[in-house]
């Protein structure tokens, strides 16, 4: 626990209790006691009139990093199935763990998920810490952050990787504040400095104009949320061996403030851009919303899905779920066809790792051609119908 009370100094005034936003301080025998609901915000430290509360730290202002070992991956699940990003994190986690010569563990929270736990071993985990409880069936911030916080306190991993999904983006900051460590959000690359066991976490910064590599030298675990679709997925190895440890959490219904009454799925069609082997994307060069009909037609012909630049999303020609780029999705399909897209750095950030890029643009100097494997200089309203016709001829 990062926040501590000096019992001898505490006068039992209760000022800290009233100011705590997490309801994490109890008065027991007229002394303040910090519970594990603490989010380490420090509000109580500022409020205490007798300086009886402090943030725990070692001499170098951090923790004893040699106490921490092992790489953990949060195995996010929905309706009892782990997400694809978990396999991406396992692939990356395996490389990091091998380099650091340490163990790779997947942390799975849920209920009746034994089969999924076994599967995580086949995707490369040495160990699965499977926390099984009815209260963990559906994600809640309080429940999940408490359980993982308890595990971190007890087992001290040196690295924790979380998918930058909606849930991961909620869980990561809450956990890092509770544990009192740093979190690099939305990473697109991870490397290791083996000598001092530091994780080098890289992400776009300053509007995507440069890539920043961020370190967490004094605190552990080193935490990172990683964009789905960026890392290569771990492969399934039927013969890979590991251990599934089933853990019973110290969790009560009262620990969870928000109750999930019902899960209602969005009625918008799901655009599985990160999974698609072929993406045909449209940009402002389409001229109007109607232009996406042509993009859809080409995508359908190729057996792909429709992507979009932010310019078209901002003008409401298409839903944000189709957006590729820094503030959209990161994709690496086998084929990416960019139609009427200039190739701004923020768009490239989301698609430049595609295996084959085809660009159609009427401006021969458009930056998209710098990353394209095949470039077609021309009006998309002439080029795309010709492509569709050529594909029809192939079909015939
Ligand atoms: P434009 O830049 O206007 O390009 C249109 C292109 O179409 C031009 O190259 C033109 O030559 C061509 N064209 C025009 N007519 C035709 C025709 N008939 N046939 C063929 N070609 C034609 N953008 C994203 O895409 N994704 C993001 O996630 C994203 N995140 C951002 C985050 C931040 C913080 C910021 C500041 C910006 C972000 N952007 C993002 C916006 C980005 O900077 C660009 O503005 C955007 O990508 C431009 O979209 P576009 O290429 O469709 O439009």
TrEMBL record:
Name of the molecule in the record: Electron transfer flavoprotein subunit alpha
Cofactor(s) annotated in UniProt: FAD
Cofactor binding notes: Binds 1 FAD per dimer.
Top-rank lineage group of the source organism: Bacteria
Gene3D superfamilies in the cross-refs: 3.30.70.20, HUPs, TPP-binding domain
4Fe-4S ferredoxin-type domain span: 1-30, 33-58
Molecular function per GO: electron transfer activity; flavin adenine dinucleotide binding; iron-sulfur cluster binding; metal ion binding
Family: Belongs to the ETF alpha-subunit/FixB family.
One of the GO BP terms on file: fatty acid beta-oxidation using acyl-CoA dehydrogenase
Keywords assigned by UniProt, alphabetized: Electron transport, FAD, Flavoprotein, Iron, Iron-sulfur, Metal-binding, Transport
């Amino acid at each position: 626990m990062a926040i501590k009370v000096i019992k001898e100094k505490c006068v039992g005034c209760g000022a800290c209790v009233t100011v705590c936003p997490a309801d994490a301080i109890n008065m027991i025998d007229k002394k303040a006691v910090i519970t594990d609901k603490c989010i380490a915000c420090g509000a109580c430290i500022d409020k205490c009139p007798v300086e009886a509360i402090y943030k725990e730290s070692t001499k170098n202002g951090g923790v004893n990093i040699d106490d921490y070992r092992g790489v953990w991956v949060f195995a996010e699940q929905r309706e009892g199935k782990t997400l694809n990003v978990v396999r991406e994190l396992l692939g990356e986690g395996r490389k990091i763990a091998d380099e650091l010569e340490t163990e790779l563990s997947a942390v799975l929270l849920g209920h009746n998920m034994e089969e999924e736990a076994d599967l995580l071993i086949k995707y490369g985990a040495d160990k699965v810490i499977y926390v099984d409880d009815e209260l963990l069936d559906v994600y809640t911030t309080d429940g999940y952050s408490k359980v993982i916080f308890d595990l971190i306190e007890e087992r001290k991993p040196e690295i924790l990787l979380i998918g930058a999904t909606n849930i991961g983006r909620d869980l990561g900051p809450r956990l890092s504040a509770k544990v009192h460590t740093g979190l690099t959000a939305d990473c697109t690359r991870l490397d290791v400095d083996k000598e001092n066991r530091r994780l080098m976490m890289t992400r776009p910064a300053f509007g995507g104009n440069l890539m920043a590599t961020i370190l967490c030298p004094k605190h552990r675990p080193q935490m990172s949320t990683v964009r789905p679709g960026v890392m290569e997925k771990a492969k399934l190895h039927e013969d890979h061996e590991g251990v599934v440890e089933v853990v019973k959490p110290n969790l009560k219904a009262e620990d969870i403030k928000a109750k999930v009454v019902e899960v209602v799925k969005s009625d918008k069609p799901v655009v599985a851009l990160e999974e698609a082997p072929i993406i045909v994307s449209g940009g402002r060069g389409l001229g109007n919303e109607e232009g996406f009909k042509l993009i859809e037609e080409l995508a359908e012909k190729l057996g792909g899905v429709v992507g979009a630049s932010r310019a078209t999303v901002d003008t409401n020609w298409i839903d944000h779920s189709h957006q590729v780029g820094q503030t959209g999705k990161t994709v690496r399909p086998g084929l990416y066809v960019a139609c009427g897209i200039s190739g701004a750095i923020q768009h490239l950030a989301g698609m430049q790792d595609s295996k084959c890029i085809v660009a159609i643009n009427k401006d021969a100097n458009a930056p998209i051609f710098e990353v394209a494997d095949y470039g077609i200089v021309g009006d998309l309203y002439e080029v795309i119908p010709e492509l569709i016709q050529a594909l029809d001829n192939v079909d015939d």
